[in-house]
Every structure is written in C-alpha cells, then in structure tokens.
Design a protein that fits this description.
By secondary structure, the chain is mainly α. Helix content is 57%, strand content 0%. It is built from four helices and no strands.
Length: 107
C-alpha cells in the first residue's frame, strides 16, 4: 500500500445494487417526464371526461339532425371522443363546427 492513498474494495453486490439504482432512477425520470407532458397537454383526467354532446343533442336540428340509425351514429360519437382528445379544453361550439364539417351529409 502506498502511503496517503486509500484502497477501495467493492463487494460484488455493491456494483449490482448501484446498477439497479441507476436503472430505477432512469425509469422514475422517464415517468416524471411523461407525467409532466400529460399536465402540459391538459390530458390529465381525460379518460373520465364526459362527451360535450350527448346522443339526443347530437341528433338535434342545431348539430346533425339527419343522422341515420345504425353504426354511423357510433362513428360520429367516436369522432367526438377523438376530437376531444386532440383538443383538450376545446369548446362545444368548435366541436359542433368540426362535426358539421366532417359529417355534412347529415345536416
């Protein structure tokens, strides 16, 4: 041993624990970044969001009065969900304009 120098010995488990801790920190940072993105985009809680327009109102004369019965109604309601996801905080009026533009055959 050289005078003034410390010798450092590692135990095999220490190296493994350090590697695991680095991985854990990396995973936590990834999730923190993801959570911050959700907050910035206004998407927190979107999974429990109610539609801006219910089925009865969708068929009203102000929105899409000529929607036929059947699968197309579901397509329209899914379009509403998609629009609300991509336009968090969007207004009902903007949604109505969008739906009337996309499904103009049912006006």
């Amino acid at each position: 041993v050289i005078e003034g120098e410390e010798l450092s010995y590692t135990i095999e488990g220490d190296v493994f624990e350090e590697a695991q801790e680095e991985k854990r920190i990396g995973v936590v940072q990834t999730y923190d970044t993801f959570a911050a993105s959700l907050l910035q985009l206004g998407l927190v809680g979107i999974w429990s969001q109610q539609p801006l327009i219910d089925g009865k109102e969708m068929k009203s004369h102000d929105i899409l009065p000529n929607i036929p019965k059947g699968p197309v109604f579901r397509v329209i309601m899914e379009e509403q969900e998609d629009w609300m996801t991509t336009h968090p905080g969007g207004s009902k009026e903007a949604l109505v304009r969008h739906l009337r533009e996309i499904f103009h055959d049912y006006i």
